[in-house]
Specification:
The strands form four sheets. The chain has an eight-stranded antiparallel beta sheet with strand order 13-12-9-10-11-14-18-16, with helices on both faces. The chain has a four-stranded parallel beta sheet with strand order 3-2-1-4, with helices on both faces. About 25% of the residues lie in helices and about 30% in strands. By secondary structure, it is of the alpha+beta class. Among the domains are: about 100 residues, Rossmann fold (3-Layer(aba) Sandwich), CATH 3.40.50; about 90 residues, ATP-grasp fold, A domain (Dna Ligase, domain 1), CATH 3.30.1490.20; about 80 residues, ATP-grasp fold, B domain (D-amino Acid Aminotransferase, Chain A, domain 1), CATH 3.30.470. Helix 3 crosses helix 4. It binds adenosine-5'-triphosphate and magnesium ion. The site of magnesium ion (MG) has 2 residues, from loops.
Amino acid sequence: MHVAALEWLTFGLARAVTAAVERGLTLHLLTSDRTEYAFGLRRSAPGSLVIHDVDTSDPTCVAKELRAIDGLAGLISTTDVCSLVSLEVAAELGLAAQPSDAVRLVRDKGALRRYLYMMGLSRASQVTVDPFAADVLAATGMLTYPAVLKDASGTGSEGVWIAQGPDDVPGILDAARTGRLRGGVLTAEPYFSGPLYSAETLSWDGETRLLGISSRLLSPLPHFREEGEAFPVAFPEPQAAELAGWISSVLNGIAYRGFSHTEFIITDDGYEIVEINPRLGGGMIGELICDAYETNIYEAFFDMALGRRPALLDAPLVAVRGMAEVDLMADRTGVFDGFDGEDRLAGHPGSPRLCSARSHGETVDSLTDWRGSLGSIVAEGPTAELAMHNAAAAARLVRPRVI
Ligand SMILES: Nc1ncnc2c1ncn2[C@@H]1O[C@H](COP(=O)(O)OP(=O)(O)OP(=O)(O)O)[C@@H](O)[C@H]1O
Ligand SMILES: [Mg+2]
C-alpha cells in the first residue's frame, strides 16, 4: 500500500520513513523543493521513499500526481502552507483528511481570535486591518496598545509586528505592503505579556491527548523569532491537569482531529492562545517528543491517513529524558557556508548533536524570523530544564558561517 505526504516538516522525515516501512507501506513525498529535506533524506532508509517533484501549492498538479500512484491509500499533511491544498485534494480523491471546518478556522487567525473571544476563551477579540485599504489608518484608533499585528494566515513568525502605540502603525503597514502576506490582511489583537509555550496534542473522535508541553525561547522584541525549546515541561499539579483539561476542551470544542501544536502564553490573567497549528509542531519538536518518550510518534500519521484511530492515543508515554533544542542563528544575511566548532561537541554533557536546517550555498535572506535559523543543537538531560541548559551551553561552541 502507498501513502503520500504533501511536503514535510523540516525534520523528522527519516522517522516517518521508518514508520512506513514497519507497516509495509511505501511513503511518497510530494515536494516543491527536495533540497529542504537534505538532512532527513541522508538519514532515511534507502529505497523506501519515493520523491515526486511537483508544485505543492497547486491542487490540480498535486491531484494529478497522486492519481498516478497505484494503490494510494492515504495522504498526510504536516505543514501550515499545504493544509488547505491537502484538504481540497483529499476530498477530490476520497481520502481521509482532517475536518475541513476546524482546519479552515485555525488557519484564519482573525476568525480564530473572534471564536475564542465569543466562547470566553480569550480576553479580547481582534480587528482586521487591510494594509492596502484607503482608510487603513482609521484602524489605529480601534486597537488597544501594545498591539500585535500579524499576517492572518502567517507561518514561521514571518509578518508579525508589535505596535507600542498608534505612531508605530504606519511603519508596520508599509512593511506589510512590501512583504509577503499569505492571508492578504493583518489581524490585530492585544499583545499578551508572558512566557510562550506550546501544547503538543493528538485528537481523534472528540478525544484529545496532551502529549506534553514545550517551552520556547524568543528573540528580543520587536521580533518574535523562536530561538529554542524544551520538552516536556514539568508543570506542578494542579496546573498540569488544568492545562490538559483546558487544551482538550478547546480542541474538542472545534471538533479538531489530528496532531495539533497550540501556542499559548501564560499571562498574569490566565492562558491566552496565540495560535492553533493544525499539525505536529514544526522545527525539531516532533523529534524532541520522539526522543523524550523513545516512541516514534510519526506512526500516528499513518494510522490517521488510513482512517484509523491512532494507537498513540493509548500508548504509554513516560518521559525517559528531557530534550531541548537551541537554534544557531545567522548573524548576517548572505550565503550559508557550514558550521564551525562541531568537533567541540564531543564529550559535552547532554550528548549534543548538530542538526543542519540548510544546505551549503543556500541564501540567508532574513534574520528576523525562522529564516535566520540555520540549524540547531539538540541535547538531552534528566529533565527538560536540564536538557535546555546542556543545549544552550553546547550551542555556544558552534557558529554558523555566512559569507
Ligand atoms: N497576541 C500576541 N501577544 C504576544 N505575542 C504574540 C501574539 N501573537 C503572536 N505573538 C508572538 O509572535 C509569534 C508568531 O505569531 P504566530 O504564532 O501567530 O505566527 P506564526 O508565523 O504562525 O508562527 P509559527 O512560527 O509558529 O509558524 C508567536 O509565537 C508569539 O511569540
Ligand atoms: Mg506560531
